[in-house]
Amino acid sequence: MDAAEVAQRLVAEEYPGARAAWLGGSVVRGDASSTSDLDITVLLSGPPAPMRRSLEYGGWPVELFVHTEDSLAYFCDKDRQRWQPTMMRLVGESIVLLDTDGSGARLQQACHEEVVAGPRALTTAELDLLRYTITCLLDDLTDAATADVRTAIASVLWQDAARLLLTGSQHWSGTGKGMLRELTAYDERHGTDHAHALLAGVRDPDALVEEVDGILDAHGGRLFAGFELAAQPV
């Protein structure tokens, strides 16, 4: 059976009272590898949702995200706050496996529209914090005493610089390979090559500094003197 058939059978066996279910992730995007899992989101009216399960079924590793409408909305809101549309992509960029009451199509469309619309703009404080953090990493990279220290700093710096590039342009961000997918999508949209330049820079600190400074310059440049960060009241 193909991925969708396996997913449908699993949902029917494990959650016969489900209102809706969606198959998302790499098997739907078309970039699945030999170790990729099935990312299945299930909508229930109540318990055992919300919960998450990992299992094997039909020869596939499976990640199950089991939600009510309220918990789904909660995690979509967390997506917005961190500029990473994980939940919204799992539902919005999916195959509908089950839709008993119209919620499958309705929530898929709502999530898809949010993904397409992009995230909110950074506040001045959020932008300044990113600029300051990256400035400090650039200084640390320049002062690194060994190649191992440079590599450790560069592995963090490229992701923070990518986060500034993406969120500063109201484009979704990510982590790890998710960050790389978002960078690649940004490059395709804008005719740039930031994904390659940042990752190549991890192996070439001088090139990384040049690339990161270019990203910083588009958002106000380096920031150290004058930076302030207010603490939360206790």
SSE topology sketch:
Blueprint: H1 3-14, E1 20-24, H2 26-29, E2 38-43, E3 51-57, E4 60-67, H3 69-82, H4 86-92, E5 95-99, H5 103-117, H6 124-143, H7 147-167, H8 176-190, H9 194-203, H10 205-217
Parallel strand pairs: 2-4
Antiparallel strand pairs: 1-2, 1-5, 3-4
Helix pairs in contact: 4-5, 6-7, 6-10, 7-8, 7-9, 7-10, 9-10
Protein architecture, described:
With 234 residues, the protein is α+β, with helices and mostly antiparallel strands. The protein has 2 domains: 3-117, Beta Polymerase, domain 2, CATH 3.30.460.10; 124-217, no CATH class. The chain is 56% helix and 13% strand. The chain contains 10 helices and 5 strands, in the order αβαβββααβαααααα. Helix 7 (147-167) crosses helix 8 (176-190). The longest helix is centred in the last third of the chain and has 21 residues, at 147-167. The protein is elongated. The mean pLDDT is 95.
